[in-house]
Amino acid sequence: MCIAARLLAPDQRQAETDGHGAAMTLPLSLLDARVPRYTSYPTAPHFHPGVDNLVFERWLRELSPDLPLSLYVHMPFCDTLCWFCGCHTTVINSHAPVVHYLADLFTEIGRVASALGAKRRVSHLHFGGGSPTIMASKDWYMLMEVLRRNFEFVQGAEIAVEIDPRGLTDEAIATLAEIGVTRASIGVQDLDEAVQRSINRIQPFACTQSAVDRLRAAGIRGLNIDLVYGLPQQSEAGLAHTLNQVLTLEPDRLAVFGYAHVPHFKKHQNLIDARTLPDLMARARQFELAQRRIAEAGYQPIGLDHFARSEDGLAIAWREGRLRRNFQGYSDDDASALIGFGASAISALPQGYVQNIAAVAQWRSALRQGALPIARGVALSADDRLRGTAIERLMCNLEVDLAGVAAGYGQTADAFADVLPRLRSLAAQGLVEIDGTTLRVAHEMRAGLRLVCAAFDAYWNEGAVQHAPAV
Prior knowledge:
alpha/beta
């Protein structure tokens, strides 16, 4: 049965045949609920300017010297505009903005390292964007030299790069291999030409296949592929064809994200004809199709929307109960402090979260005035930590022992008493099973996972902030 059909109680369903013998429902209010993606708790809309650069500097100084760090570097530029994109990025038509941006980025890296004091160990480095591969070889060499000068990379540290395979040259791949990149995350979205035209991202399968082959030949063996469902013009048949082609590439990991159409927030999404977007039922079927097809190919489902081969570090972390969730998605990185560099980057420290200024000009101005370019953040309360741990365990494991979580903070499961009425309501609708103080979300019910997490969210108010649909 379709996931969407199972999310409502029997008396709320209205079924008809879809021509394939499967049950089909009318638009479903539960799946249409706008809920956070829970890459943090509290989520970014609840950050505020009261946490500023001075607070961030103090938090950096307070970090234990023995604490390994994870680093994120944001490159906010692309050479073309993908209309579906929700990232902080700007289209540029010359290399000069990259050069100027890097000069200020180097200043930021040095300033953070100075606040940290002793040279700190790094276990994970992720380059995101935008399109990090817009950088030239000399840019990569300089950036890595600055990072290695200010931080000590531990043996076996993972260095990951988000890659746009369009225009990816052999020189660029050789450079990535030489600077120590161990993992590449390749954006594919969908291989149907009509879908690609509707999102302004023309990327034939041969382009992706070539990038995968050349990356592997250069020794970059860890490969992720990102897909998106809910795109304009997208169909189940087209998505099935995309999945079949992508699976022939045998990536180590796959992520399947739901497109969030938020033109009020990302103005360029107005270039997408909203009438061509799949409706709620079609999105639910696409989500279910992707889950089923990837699992049938032998991948382990991870959390909400990731999949990994059984021998991959992500699957191992999931089996061992140490999977984490951060602003890049799911991770096997166990560093308890993540520091973000660049415009819009977010840092996650034991004390709380901070986000850099998103606009490059203002980010640059703050740096040139001698400050760290912080726009906003939030300090974590004891209650935030308690609820955040429960949410992360649910997002990672689809299961959480509330008594065990509470005990870790010196409390009992009664600390979650306010959550129980909402959980019981969701359980009555089939989204979650309650067994004593243990909650479980069945794999086939993952479409409703974020709704279960929202039951713990003391800040969330449906409709107050425009999040992504539940499916």
